[in-house]
Amino acid sequence: MRLVVDTNILFSFFNCKSTARELSTRYDLLLYSPTFALTEIEKYKEVIMKRFSLTHMQYSVIIKLLQTVINFLGEDEYETFFSKAKKISPDPDNIDFFALSFSLNCPLWSNDADLKKQSSLEVWSTKDLVEKLDL
User: Fold this and answer.
1) 0.90 exceeded by the pTM?
2) 48, pLDDT greater than 90
């Protein structure tokens, strides 16, 4: 199963007890995200470390693990879908995720309920994904 993963799902990966992390590492999922999401994560490094009580070493190990679980793709992989994504994305901060989902023809994994306020692209929450995996 292929899914595009938004930044908030990626943030939850730093919580060793999160369902998102378990799903990402234990089930047969092909996960993708825009490369810029790594920049966003780095931007909030200190917040992430504090929130999840991580050392610099633990943070680095999790980033490496994240990069083995998620396929990060550059803008050139999905730029032809920007105009379509701009028209339907309820949040301008999520245009890249919508464009990548259109490019890969797969759902977006996000817990942001506002992103479901459109009908052109499937958006699955973690709860939706658990149900679809029949767990």
Assistant:
1) yes
2) yes
